[in-house]
């Protein structure tokens, strides 16, 4: 099977990289499928200089001209979807069909940002001084730095690239070194669509080394990061030295609240599929299950049946629903969560162990009667683990849902409008889904609160994140 050659993209040219590199591993069979080169310090400086020059070109193009290039890039993504999805599956592990859906979302998002860039309106303000004219305009903020996680190699990358380009900014982006091919394929779509050199620059390397170097540059005016809370805090501190504006999409620990009046079969079908999508390696994955006491056993039993029925395997095989974890290190993390929960008194209903001895597969796991003291109730597992608790009242479960410092996504299942509104307004989260889990679309804001970060990607909010506001007043001209 084909796999993309990985190179650095600097000022419109692909380079082999002078800073060493690392193997790329297929998590389904542990084979080496490629090599990811690292950028040297000199190459990072070249990428920064290219972004500076690329910004001058891109910002001065009309919004219509930018939109046409972005639309063409989206068309190329659609044309190349099978190949890009194959690269994605081989480096990250998710099923090929799921990878194709991700690429479809990515092309949709690219089109949406291109179109929204044409609607970046300013306004006129009535003056207090006779004869004066007062105007407010939105300008692109400048060259952007972006660092992204491995779990959605296409979505995480395109949210940064398309948001920046739609607003008129250039970008230096460092995708994950574990999943680089998807990002390279997307960059080539923009290149082939006619994007000017220097508007997108793509580098790889040791994350802390690259981020320190790039964020130390006065060229960068905006940072967008998707990843863990500790790394987000670290990058925010680095950005503060140059007063770089930030968007932080950090980790979560999404509560799922199921009331006894909910349609249980629909709730179980939706949440089980969403929980084990991408082996639970999703920042908005359901990760804390609170089920009202009189339907608790029924829900646990039904959810467990669905977990056991999932087909696990290589994402390139037909009918596979869940692939492997991304790397060997994640297996030990899953085992640690499971053993800690058992020691705290939880019952492992199904799963709780590695599957086979080749590939990083971990069984879909359901834990019953998990106490608050268990680590999994306070730390995001980022894997196929579903811990469950019962609750009695709305007030009790709202307190539990808000008991952690995270606030990314949350989910509620009920047919009672009053309960729905109480939870929608009461939960501390950036996104709340009632009776369905679809909280991420191109036209809607995606982001969290508290330690899950700040700022939004998607929606008009996502475009504004890459803009600055300028007020102009004139008289006698």
3D architecture notes:
- With 477 residues, the chain is of the alpha/beta class.
- The protein has two domains: 8-250 and 452-475, Aldehyde Dehydrogenase, Chain A, domain 1 (3-Layer(aba) Sandwich); 254-441, Aldehyde Dehydrogenase, Chain A, domain 2.
- Helices cover 39% and strands 21% of the residues.
- The protein has 14 helices and 22 strands.
- The strands form six sheets. A seven-stranded mixed beta sheet has the order 14-15-16-13-12-18-19, sandwiched between helices.
- Strand 3 (21-25) and strand 4 (32-37) form a beta hairpin.
- Helix 2 (63-79) crosses helix 6 (180-192).
- The longest helix has 22 residues, at 96-117.
What would the keywords be for this entry?
477 residues; 14 helices; single chain; alpha/beta; 2 domains; Aldehyde Dehydrogenase, Chain A, domain 1; Aldehyde Dehydrogenase, Chain A, domain 2; six-stranded mixed β-sheet; 22 strands
Give a brief description:
The protein has helices spanning 41-59, 63-79, 81-92, 96-117, 155-167, 180-192, 207-215, 229-240, 264-276, 296-309, 328-343, 394-401, 417-426, 459-464; strands at residues 8-10, 13-15, 21-25, 32-37, 123-125, 132-140, 144-147, 171-174, 200-202, 222-226, 245-249, 254-258, 286-292, 347-350, 365-368, 385-391, 406-407, 409-413, 431-434, 449-450, 453-454, 467-475.
